[in-house]
């Protein structure tokens, strides 16, 4: 009989993505402990749970508590470190690098090797440059598209719109269209500028806005769940 599966959780600032080791698809739910427990109820009981979270300490403590109560098993939290699984972290304080970025780099290097540019277009957009031999040169953090749009409403008196139009980088003819085009243009042009600076590198893109950015001309290969890919490699190396 095969042993129960190991559950992988990628907790971002908007969404939790989960799957079991050895699976290829992904399940999503909003980043809330009770929503996650609900979404896991139909799944088989895991033998272990492995977590990559950038949601913050208070959220993580609540989530780990809820998972341990529900499944009565230990939860392992991945952390960014100076060097692991072929990647050397550029940060002087390695633990302060978002663990989702760390896992995405580990996943990318596992999939296509290095040099590679790793783009995660989620709540925030991160771009990490990984040179030959897995040497992380450094990266970029930008607000994600949704965050850019919301910030304009929050921090101005007159930028108001009902609904954002479909992704576009064409000049807008109403406030919502101008805000959306501005945000998509900023996101896509930033990513393309970094990719163009490293012509010898493969570029992989993941995250909720990856497909839309590719449709708008971002030059990168889609890899849907790079954080879970890296987390799976880490989990297998840690707990087999
Ligand atoms: N229905 C949606 N709900 C939330 N975000 C969405 C939706 N559709 C697209 N997005 C975009 O996806 C981004 C979140 O991507 P995701 O990879 O799930 O983020 P994170 O890893 O930060 O949780 C949002 O910032 C937004 O720009
Ligand atoms: C930059 C991020 C907010 C991206 O998070 P996400 O968009 O995936 O929710 C996350 O990687 C993070 O909190 N990083 C810590 C700071 C750092 O990486 O330097
Ligand atoms: K991100």
Automatic annotation (TrEMBL):
Protein residues bound to ATP: 10-17, 123
Residues binding K(+): 120
Coiled coil feature spans: none
InterPro entries hit by this protein: ATPase_NBD, Type_III_PanK
Top-rank taxon, per record: Bacteria
Pathway: Cofactor biosynthesis; coenzyme A biosynthesis; CoA from (R)-pantothenate: step 1/5
Family label: Belongs to the type III pantothenate kinase family.
Record text on subunit structure and interactions: Homodimer.
Record's cofactor remark: A monovalent cation. Ammonium or potassium.
Molecular function via GO: ATP binding; metal ion binding; pantothenate kinase activity
Subcellular location: Cytoplasm
Protein source organism: Luminiphilus syltensis NOR5-1B
Gene: coaX
Cofactor entry: K(+); NH4(+)
Catalytic reaction(s) noted: (R)-pantothenate + ATP = (R)-4'-phosphopantothenate + ADP + H(+)
Annotated protein name in UniProt: Type III pantothenate kinase
Catalytic residues, chain numbering: 100 (proton acceptor)
EC number: 2.7.1.33
Gene3D superfamilies noted in UniProt: 3.30.420.40
GO cellular component annotations of the record: cytoplasm
Residues that, per the record, bind substrate: 91, 98-101, 175
UniProt entry keywords in alphabetical sequence: ATP-binding, Coenzyme A biosynthesis, Cytoplasm, Kinase, Metal-binding, Nucleotide-binding, Potassium, Transferase
Function recorded in the entry: Catalyzes the phosphorylation of pantothenate (Pan), the first step in CoA biosynthesis.
CDD domains referenced in this protein's UniProt entry, alphabetically: ASKHA_NBD_PanK-III
SUPFAM superfamilies tied to this protein: Actin-like ATPase domain
GO biological process, one term: coenzyme A biosynthetic process
Keyword presence, Lipid metabolism: no
């Amino acid at each position: 009989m095969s042993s129960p599966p190991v559950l992988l959780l990628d907790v971002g600032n908007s969404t939790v993505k989960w799957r079991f080791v050895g699976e290829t698809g992904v399940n999503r739910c909003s980043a809330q402990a009770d929503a996650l427990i609900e979404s896991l109820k139909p799944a088989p009981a895991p033998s272990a749970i492995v977590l990559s979270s950038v949601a913050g300490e208070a959220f993580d403590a609540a989530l780990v508590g809820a998972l341990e109560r529900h499944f009565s098993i230990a939860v392992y939290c991945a952390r960014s470190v100076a060097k692991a699984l072929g990647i050397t972290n550029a940060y002087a304080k390695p633990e302060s690098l978002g663990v989702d970025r760390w896992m995405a780099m580990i996943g990318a290097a596992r999939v296509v090797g290095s040099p590679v540019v790793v783009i995660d277009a989620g709540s925030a957009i991160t771009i990490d440059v990984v040179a030959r031999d897995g040497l992380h040169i450094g990266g970029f953090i930008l607000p994600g598209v949704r965050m850019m749009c919301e910030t304009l409403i929050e921090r101005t008196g007159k930028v108001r719109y009902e609904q954002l139009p479909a992704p576009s980088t064409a000049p807008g003819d109403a406030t919502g269209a101008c805000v959306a085009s501005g945000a998509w243009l900023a996101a896509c042009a930033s990513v393309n500028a970094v990719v163009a600076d490293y012509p010898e590198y493969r570029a992989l893109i993941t995250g909720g806005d990856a497909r839309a950015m590719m449709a708008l001309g971002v030059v990168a290969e889609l890899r849907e769940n790079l954080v879970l890919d890296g987390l799976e490699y880490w989990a297998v190396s840690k707990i087999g």
